[in-house]
Amino acid sequence: MMTEKYVLDVAWETIMLTMKVSAPALLATLVVGLLVSIFQAATQINEQNLVFIPKVLAMTATVVIAGPWVLRLLITFTIDIFHQIPQVTH
């Protein structure tokens, strides 16, 4: 049966999954941005492309590497939600 607790549990699981899925790309972008900023501060180079291109490359590489893990998480979550449908309708 669909209760307030059930809805809150599903919402919490969804929020946690969202954080798990987005964390690798965001962390890679954060680390690369920090390293490029330190490099720019040390060399006094203020080129915007120097920040943007490494971040895009790092995020792309992270998505390619973490893609199978992320896909497995999303598939598992989706299957669990579909399996819970009969219990929600009764």
What is the gist of this entry?
It contains two helices and no strands. By secondary structure, it is mainly α. It has one domain.
How would you characterize the overall build of this protein?
The protein is mostly helical. It has one domain (4-89). The chain has helices at 4-43, 48-89. Helix 1 (4-43) packs antiparallel against helix 2 (48-89). The chain is elongated. The chain starts with a helix and ends with a helix. The relative contact order is 0.14.
- Biggest sheet, in brief? none
User: Could you say how many structural domains there are in total?
Assistant: 1
Q: Uncertain segments of ≥5 residues (pLDDT<50)? A: none
Can you give the helix content as a percent range?
over 70%
Roughly how many Å is the radius of gyration?
20 Å
Number of DSSP strand runs:
0
Shape: elongated
Strand content: under 5%
CA(first)-CA(last) distance: 5 Å
What is the tally of helical segments? 2
Mean pLDDT: 92
Which structural class matches the secondary elements? mainly alpha
Order of helices and strands: HH
